[in-house]
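JOB MANIFEST
job_type = single_chain_structure
chain_count = 1
residues = 409
[input]
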Amino acid sequence: MRAEIITIGDELLIGQVVDTNSAWISQRLNECGIEVHQITSVHDDRNHIVQALNEAFTRADLIITTGGLGPTKDDITKHVLCEYFRMKLVESPQVKAHIEQLYASRPEVLNRLTATQWQVPQGATILPNRVGSAPLMVFPMRTKTLVSLPGVPYEMEIGITEQVIPYLRQRFPSLGVVEHRTIMVSGIPESSLAILLSDYEASLPKGLHLAYLPKDGTIRLRLSSYGEVPTQTLEEWIDQLQFIVHNYLIVTDDRPLELHVADALNAHKATLATAESCTGGKLASLLTRHSGSSSFFRGTVVAYSNDVKRDVLGIPEYDLQRFGAVSEPVVRWMAEGVRRITHSDYAIATSGIAGPTGGTKEKPVGTVWIGWATPNGTDAACFQLGKLRDQITDRACQKALIGLLERIR
């Protein structure tokens, strides 16, 4: 089954809001064996929406729209869909009762605009929206289906999970299952990796596809089965892939690196702290954005200036002056200092030139030193991580986590 996603809203096209809905919907549909072939964003404009619908129906079996279902004047999606499918709006007692219950503790919300939310297209299938007032609307045709969802991400996600996917599986029992296996490698250019895997790719059976997904100095290799290859065979091919790239293999699933770090630390009942200069707390943010990080993460010192490096982390003034903040001795001192003051088992330190200014001939923009203090000693490494500030700091965080994993293991 082919699907298209149409996101509706001026805010998407002027860059005020980033469209995260499409990526999330695509992942969920892919898990059901539904391939998303196109994603389109349109204005809150009747003609633009109709044009997008007409084009999508020529290509796709399933169309999912998000946005434009609120009660205000600029939310026109429901009215355009009524016109498109030649339906009229009628009051839904079920939707009305749900909205009245939803806002029972906030009676001021129940006004004449809110009342328009329980007006639904006559002839559409209405699915409950447990957490919002905009109903989930399905327009089933003989061979095609359109689903209209709210643009608010948490409403859309709950609606897709609890209502839309079960509806689609019931209506289309033949929906398959797409399986993915992902591993992550580092330390090899993408082109060199492709050469290394050329014979492997050439021998893949029909129904298996290998994708290269580079990001921040790492490459994810995703092996996908589109329902034509038994799960056992898929596992055999992923095992073979891991064997070929074992010299560069970092992790064997698609979870973020920081979760693998958490697992490794928790398995050893060990703790971690960070001392950050060029990454400015980004590394600590990655480590603490997941629930349960308090079990291993002790804290961080963002030591951006030399006096903080000296007074808080205990770096000798002599080393700061002789070697500079971006140097091996300084990151070693930083890692050891934060490990000491936080009483941690492991520590990571970063110091670099993230640019766009501050580079020199000896230390150009993109130069980053990373230090690791462990129960077995302290070491450091220097990296050249690009020219763009965000690129440099993101890559530095990835290098720091990969290095820590290697040292724990």
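[summary]
The radius of gyration is 27 Å.
The longest helix spans residues 389-408.
exit_status = 0
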